Amino acid sequence: MEQGGVVKRALIRFLTLWLICLTLTAVRAEQPAPAYHAELNIPYCTVDGKTLILNAFLPDKADKPVPAMVYFYGGWWFGGGVAKDLQGVPDWGVYAGRGVAVFSNQYRLGQQGGFPQNIRDCRNAIRYVRKHAKEFNIDPDRIACTGISAGGYLTYMVTLVPEDFDDGGPCEGLEGISAKVCGGFGYVGPTDFVSAWAAAPGDEITDANGKVSHRPPDGKIPNDYRPRLRILFHGVTPETEQGKALYARLSPVNLVRKDIPPILICDGEKDPIVPGQPGKVLFEKLQAAGADATYWVTLNGGHAYPGGQGFRPVLNGFLDRIWNLESNH
């Protein structure tokens, strides 16, 4: 009888502890993310007569400087625009859950933009955020960047290029401010323009009189790089040695070195827009150089935000590490 009572009391204690754990877990899961406020249309740079703006989404009542994420939008470097609210940033909850400040910057597009102009704009956005870290209540040493597609490419470039990269340099008022990031999370972005050009369909048109011209970009044609790159490289193509050298200089795969910030590179296995898993090529080169690089491919994934079983722990671990946060996600 005594033995039965001991077992019964042990079972009660176990069930009580189990219920307490369930309650604590539920309470923790229901904890709301910090409230945020937006500061919109902040001019961060004026270049070639155009004033560029960024939007800031900042956690309320932060009692100390917080990490920051700068988001570069996609759109083939011809379209897209700044996020108008925090929910406009892909997977915004992963940042809000950590109380991270989020920024989204405008960069020059199409003929007015191109390469290296859009790279310069994004690096100047990083400089501006760092210069005004105190006003934004962020830690200037914990500014990271992220982006999709064209923004993924810009993320790779901003993360990989050295401080003195020849992109035109700081805008007025940002001289002497570093464009370095503490990490980059890019997804479904191209990494090698020379190879992309070679693999892309042709864009030449010959009329009845034998005159050759070039068609505009066609959204219905997969991997339609050539007409876009002609514009973005201001008429230069990689069909000459000089042009090929320029395309190579502005390709992430040729900026590999060991001493880069940590980078998370993601491909879609069946991406029709940026095919061939170009991020894997970049990752393998970085890995061979001893750089701090992480790779993820979304199985059966297209041209979209990464996912699939196992991705969330990879992302959480990466973000917590670059911002030096205690993982509780």
Q: Any low-confidence stretches, pLDDT <50, length ≥5? A: 10-32
CATH superfamily of the largest domain: Alpha/Beta hydrolase fold, catalytic domain
Known CATH architecture of the largest domain: 3-Layer(aba) Sandwich
The count of DSSP E runs of length 2 or more, i.e. the number of strands, is 10
- Summarize model confidence as the mean pLDDT: 90
* Integer-rounded radius of gyration: 23 Å
Largest sheet report: 8 strands, mixed
User: What's the number of domains?
Assistant: 2
Spatial strand sequence of the major β-sheet? 1-2-4-3-5-6-9-10
The dominant shape is globular
Strand content: 15-25%
Structural class: alpha/beta
Can you give the helix content as a percent range?
25-40%
Order of helices and strands: HEEEHEHHEHEHEEHHEHEH
Q: How many helices?
A: 10
Distance between the termini: 46 Å
Top CATH class of the largest domain: Alpha Beta
Under CATH, the topology of the largest domain is which?
A: Rossmann fold
Task: Please sum up the structure shown.
The chain is of the alpha/beta class and 329 residues long. 33% of the residues lie in helices and 20% in strands. The chain has two domains: 36-192 and 251-322, Rossmann fold, CATH 3.40.50.1820; 193-250, no CATH class.
Please provide a written account of the structure.
- The chain has 2 domains: 36-192 and 251-322, Rossmann fold, CATH 3.40.50.1820; 193-250, no CATH class.
- Helix content is 33%, strand content 20%.
- The chain has 10 helices and 10 strands.
- The protein has helices at residues 2-29, 92-96, 117-131, 133-136, 150-160, 193-199, 226-232, 241-249, 278-289, 311-322, and strands spanning 36-47, 50-59, 66-72, 101-105, 138-148, 184-187, 204-206, 212-214, 263-268, 293-298.
- Helix 5 links the parallel strand 5 (138-148) and strand 6.
- The protein is globular.
- Residues 10-32 have low confidence and may be disordered.
